[in-house]
Design a protein that fits this description.
single chain; 544 residues; alpha/beta; Muramoyl-pentapeptide Carboxypeptidase, domain 2; Rossmann fold; 4-stranded antiparallel β-sheet; 13% strand; globular; binds zinc ion
Length: 544
């Protein structure tokens, strides 16, 4: 449906029990302009104009966010663009302003969004004008622009900021606001700062900074402890169990023999293999079986970060090297010390960083971004890729000299379909970890699992086991408990063995959706065809 087809009377209702006004499933309150005006006046006296602008923007942001989710749970729009168009109704619906929206550019792929909003009779202008303060210096419709930011950010799926450029309170004929995605604002430091001071309270920001620092330290401690546990486990259970690498196949035995041989040496290792085959586990195995085991193991996925961020994450930077570099940053390569550094998806490393990495490997020293003095580099590099690096060399996407530096000792992890003997062993291992003491599989399940090609390899097998346990619970796993791709059976057959109640089924399915959306309530609510509020209520009722 299109934004223009929205019918206000369908979204606004009165709760039949209490008589409360409702917007979708959300209770609303009614306030009057003089009452709001008094509240704002008191808040202004309490916190001053700048902090108040921040508080009001955040309050508006929340209104816009909820409105976007609410309206989407009520209507299915033809496109996200139509959904954004619908924001113009929020102004009149909430009594904020009579707004007109014009979208100039909307492209979620490239994260670029531009729109402008003109509005008449903003209630905020009304509030302040009745106090008769002089606000001719700056626009004052913070709740309204906050609400548009919140609404658009939800629709666009990434941060959108709306700035008022002219306000009726300043004597203009109408208010005019400009909305853009973060990148479209260019994110120059002064602009960002100005926008964020509008959005966040200062004490809150400081608190976040402290929490971030604490989190970082806790993560470092955790990974050190995990490393220790892994080493101890390896000592207690020599062989496959302790390393977490489970195998029986001849191909894996050969690979592990090679890993054992290369581990104690200083050689750079390149691990090749399809994604999901467990390349990082092999890298960790090499690390724990090397003389570097008491030093850190650090990993980075080259495909996960944009080039500029990856560069400073890897090589570090000095204070003032670029906008936002307000302190020295050591970089992951140096933080690894004498440990092992795992570069996953090395084929995706941008060419300019390839040259930089090559220099590090050749000269054994690192020059942080913006820094003059090189720092000695002592860690061992273990790289991994699921790409054919030789063909990337031919396409001029990967440096040949770097390839030969990395592939001093190449290892290849075979796809799961080429080592069928490992499938049952791995399945039992995962099953035991997910649900200790579980009753196992029916023979038909074993057959299905051994004939399925597992394009997602060990990772897919692990997910498959989690899925099966959700459906089967403690019971023996039957073909109908396997994901459709593996069992290729009708989904209804999957529940035919225990015929759960509708309520129980709803619970299992909700859990499955939450798992697949990594507990993202907004996404889960969308998949379940409900609002976030309703989802929260249901989770509460189900005791989840
Ligand atoms: Zn205004």
């Amino acid at each position: 449906m299109r934004a223009e087809d929205i019918k206000l009377s369908e979204i606004f209702s009165q709760d039949p029990g209490t008589g409360f006004p409702m917007f979708g499933t959300q209770r609303m309150i009614m306030s009057s302009l003089p009452a709001m005006s008094q509240l704002m006046q008191q808040l202004l006296a309490l916190m001053g104009p700048e902090q108040l602008a921040g508080v009001l923007s955040r309050y508006g942001y929340r209104i816009g966010m909820t409105a976007a989710l609410n309206i989407a749970s009520h209507y299915e729009f033809d496109s996200p663009r139509e959904w954004l168009e619908a924001s113009r109704y929020i102004g009149s619906m909430t009594g904020m302003a009579d707004a007109r929206l014009e979208i100039h550019h909307f492209d979620r792929e490239t994260r670029s969004l531009r729109f402008s909003v003109t509005c008449q009779s903003s209630f905020e202008v009304g509030c302040w004008q009745s106090i008769e303060l002089d606000f001719t210096q700056k626009p004052i419709c913070h709740i309204f622009t906050g609400a548009l930011s919140g609404f658009a950010s939800v629709v666009f799926g990434s941060e959108v900021l709306v700035k008022e450029v002219a306000c009726q309170a300043q004597g203009h004929g109408h208010c005019l606001a400009e909305g853009r995605s973060a990148s479209e604002w260019g994110m120059s430091p002064s602009e960002v700062q100005e926008l964020w001071t509008q959005m966040e309270l200062k004490p809150f920001e400081k608190e976040m900074e402290i929490l971030r620092e604490k989190l970082k330290k806790a993560q470092t401690d955790l990974s050190t402890h995990q490393e220790k546990i892994r080493r101890l486990e390896a000592k207690i259970h020599p062989g496959s169990e302790g390393s977490g690498i489970i195998y029986r196949s001849t191909r894996m035995k050969k690979l592990m023999l090679l890993a054992d041989k290369v581990a104690p040496t200083q050689s750079t290792v390149l691990i090749q293999g399809e994604s999901g085959t467990g390349k990082e586990m092999i890298a960790r195995y090499i690390h724990t079986h090397s003389g570097r085991a008491d030093h850190p193991f650090r990993a980075v996925n080259c495909a996960a970060l944009p080039a500029a961020l990856l560069e400073s994450e890897l090589f570090g930077h000095v204070k003032g090297a670029f906008t936002g570099a307000d302190s020295n940053h050591k970089g992951l390569l140096l933080e690894t010390g004498k440990g092992s550094f795992f570069l996953d998806e090395i084929g995706e490393l941008p060419l300019e960083l390839q040259s930089k990495l090559l220099r590090v490997l050749q000269e054994k020293e690192i020059r942080p971004v913006g820094g003059l003095d090189p720092v000695p580099f002592e860690a061992r590099i273990i790289a991994a890729t699921n790409q054919d690096l030789k063909s990337r060399i031919k396409e001029k996407l990967f440096r040949e000299d770097l390839y030969y530096r990395l592939a001093v000792f190449p290892l290849t992890v075979d796809p799961l379909c080429e080592r069928k003997e490992d499938i049952l062993l791995l399945s039992r291992y995962f099953l035991d970890r997910i649900q200790p003491g579980h009753h196992g599989f029916s023979p038909a399940v074993v057959r299905m699992m051994e004939t399925y090609p597992w394009p997602g390899n060990v990772r897919e097998l692990k997910n498959c086991m989690e899925y099966a346990v959700i459906l089967a619970g403690q019971d023996r796993i039957l073909p109908e408990h396997l994901p459709l791709s593996v069992s290729s059976e009708d989904p209804l057959t999957a529940i035919s063995h225990d015929l759960p109640t509708f309520r129980e089924l709803e619970k299992r399915y909700t859990r499955l959706v939450l798992k697949n959306t990594h507990q993202n309530k907004t996404q889960a609510a969308r998949i379940l065809g409900t609002s976030v509020t309703t989802l929260w209520r249901r989770l509460n009722e189900m005791g989840m």
